[in-house]
């Protein structure tokens, strides 16, 4: 089999890089790192395979890469890619579903606990030397067990989150999804509900949807107004699903109690963003899948996808719009 040109546009563990080098010629250039964008653009005209993530690959960029056969994303979400343009050009898009599901669900549940029990605020209180006597009501949190958890998007991660909530914390679960799906839980633990019912009845609304034309901006002022007073919003999906200004208004007015955000409209979050230091926001740096074990598994799966597709084999996970 002939060796092909592979452009690696995000860091890969050495073992995975070596697997690619064993079969192909490799160029490493991360366009998000200062000084590497030129090398990235220069490598596109000859690139036959691309592996990386977190960088928009649109039609304009694809025009610069006429030999491209495969893109392997080190992510499950594929919103950074112009999927229609890829399909028209016959380029295979691979991603990493499944290997990160449980890890992301763990982090989403950490945001549920962290917002309601005010973990960030209480930790800072101790670190700043302000803990001089037993804390009072002004620092109390709110119970999580027994509260209603609403999930927008009931796919792999949504269902893993529901298991934690329903079985571990006795939380009634309401879920909203596009295609009807069973709860996967014992009778009475979770049920499907309309978008409105999830908003109106849930104490926590967790977003685990893909970013698409239908979901972009889906949570705005009208949707926050329909949420229960004192409810908490968790966004573990993609920033642009939430209208950030409307969220700030809903928090500042006191209608929503708190928000746990792993994702933002612009990432990394700009230094002057009002979401960065907001007292009711628990912000994380898009860390859903960021454990040693899971990032290693994602890199391995993405590398396997790339190598299989370049050999003409069916990769472990090729993405096609349904
Ligand atoms: N914070 C982080 O670090 C991470 C974030 N993510 C985000 O989580 C998302 C979900 O991942 P995963 O669970 O593996 O994906 P899945 O494809 O398994 O689940 C997505 C679910 O959303 C549903 N859905 C899609 N569009 C709509 C809509 N318009 N209205 C209602 N439901 C809809 C899907 O239904 P249907 O079957 O009908 O399409 C499906 O049930 C990813 O796309 C990514 O954006 C993922 C990993 C890490
Ligand atoms: O956000 C991460 C992903 O895998 O998608």
Automatic annotation (TrEMBL):
Substrates-to-products reaction catalysed: (R)-glycerate + NADP(+) = 3-hydroxypyruvate + NADPH + H(+); (R)-glycerate + NAD(+) = 3-hydroxypyruvate + NADH + H(+); glycolate + NADP(+) = glyoxylate + NADPH + H(+)
For this record, an example GO cellular component is:
cytosol
Annotated Pfam families: 2-Hacid_dh, 2-Hacid_dh_C
Q: Where is the D-isomer specific 2-hydroxyacid dehydrogenase catalytic domain?
A: 6-316
> What's the top EC group for this one?
oxidoreductase
Q: Where is the D-isomer specific 2-hydroxyacid dehydrogenase NAD-binding domain?
A: 109-288
InterPro entries (alphabetical):
D-isomer_2-hydroxyacid_DH, D-isomer_2_OHA_DH_cat_dom, D-isomer_DH_CS1, D-isomer_DH_NAD-bd, NAD(P)-bd_dom_sf
Domain of life the protein comes from: Bacteria
Keyword annotations of the record? Oxidoreductase, Pyruvate
Coiled-coil region(s): none
What Enzyme Commission number does this protein have?
Answer: 1.1.1.79, 1.1.1.81
Give one GO term, molecular function aspect: hydroxypyruvate reductase (NADPH) activity
Write out the similarity annotation: Belongs to the D-isomer specific 2-hydroxyacid dehydrogenase family. GhrB subfamily.
Q: What is this protein called?
A: Glyoxylate/hydroxypyruvate reductase B
**Species per Swiss-Prot/TrEMBL record:** Pollutimonas thiosulfatoxidans
